[in-house]
Amino acid sequence: MVRQPSVAAQHREPLTRDRIIEAALHIVDGQGLGRLTMRRLGDALEVEAMAIYHHLPRGKEELLDGLVAHVAVLPAEARSADWRAALRSWADAYRARLLAHAGVLPLLVTRRNPAALSGTTASLREILRQAGLPEQSAADGAHALLGYVIGHAALEVRDTAAAEESVDWHARFSAGLALILRGLPT
């Protein structure tokens, strides 16, 4: 006997890598990174967990790398003619994404696969090269910016959860970012 798909299954959005990563991000945001399993993800997508492996052959490792890369996407407005404005726009947008998806933060410091952030680092290096920095200075500047934003977001998430005093995190972030951007040679 051939089993016919249900009406809901017939109208379900096709399974794609992006849809899988978005669903995983939703689980991480709502339940935490520790609750992300392939079975739970399959349930959320209304598919068998094994169907996910068609789009992510390396399984959970590829999924975790995909989460890091998804949160690290460089916004289009970060491609401005004014390199400092472009970097400020990127930093603000990346910080906001990290704070919105704080469950992904541990992956940024524990994943051994730097390829998940290589596109972001390359984009930052390119902005700095176009500003006139030599290759090594552009690489160092991109690394410093990435480390600052990730580190600040991690401190902000940690301290916001435990802080008794009110801290203007946005002002603190902006002041630190301005110091870094002023320190980049042009």
UniProtKB/TrEMBL annotation:
GO molecular function term, any single one: DNA-binding transcription factor activity
GO biological process terms, semicolon-separated: negative regulation of DNA-templated transcription
The record ties this protein, via Gene3D superfamilies, to: Homeodomain-like, Tetracycline Repressor, domain 2
Domain named Tetracycline repressor TetR C-terminal: residues: 80-154
Report keywords, A-Z: DNA-binding, Transcription, Transcription regulation
Residues in HTH tetR-type domain copies: 20-65
Could you tell me which Pfam families the record lists for this protein?
TetR_C_1, TetR_N
Q: Note the SUPFAM superfamilies from the entry.
A: Homeodomain-like, Tetracyclin repressor-like, C-terminal domain
Instruction: Report what the protein is called.
Output: TetR family transcriptional regulator
Report the source organism: Thermomonospora umbrina
